Amino acid sequence: MEHKLLFEEGYWKASGFYYTEKGQPHQVEGQVRIYHEDDLWINDGVMKVVGQESVEIRNRYEIIPWDEGKELTTWISVNPSLGVLEGTFTVVGDCILSEYRAEEGQFSGSEVLIQTASDRYLNRGVLVYKGKEKLSSWAVELIRTEGPRY
After folding, report:
1. Region label for 87, one of left (φ > 0), alpha (ψ between -120 and 50) or beta (otherwise)
2. Backbone φ and ψ of 109, nearest 5°
3. Which of 45, 15, 19 shows the shortest CA–CA distance to 127?
4. Burial state string for 127-139 with b = 16 or more CB within 10 A and e = fewer than 16
5. Domains of the chain
6. Between 103 and 7, where is the model more confident?
7. Which of 48, 100, 113, 140 could form a disulfide with 16 if both were Cys (CB 3.0 to 4.6 A apart)?
8. 62 class by beta-carbon count within 10 Å (0-12 exposed, 13-18 middle, 19+ buried)
9. What's the half-sphere exposure (Cβ side, CA atoms, 13 Å) at 30?
């Protein structure tokens, strides 16, 4: 099965849970839009806490497209709360792994996208402060959709 997420333009519905630094779960829903420009792929996403729609998490990744035959590429994201994040995406079989670090070095994290079907992925990740304190984590499912929700 070839990867669709990131590699093809489209919309993905997201739903699952966001966990606070103390593990308190909050149900979230959102959307990811993938689109490709000449030398840049964009992953633009928003997640909203169910019942508290004013609480939202936004990310816009600018991804350098994979070179042919390569498994790893780089990305940059400007996060309103964390600043500039720099990371990598690595394809490993049915997974896309990501590691990242804030430009200032105080925040880091990792996530995995596990392909369960051609149009479905499980996303699991964690954000860490100064390498030793969990700030948040998440467990979300992404399902490809026909168009925008928000």
Report:
1. beta
2. -175, 180
3. 19
4. bbbeeeeebbbbe
5. 10-145 (2.40.128.20)
6. 7
7. 140
8. middle
9. 26
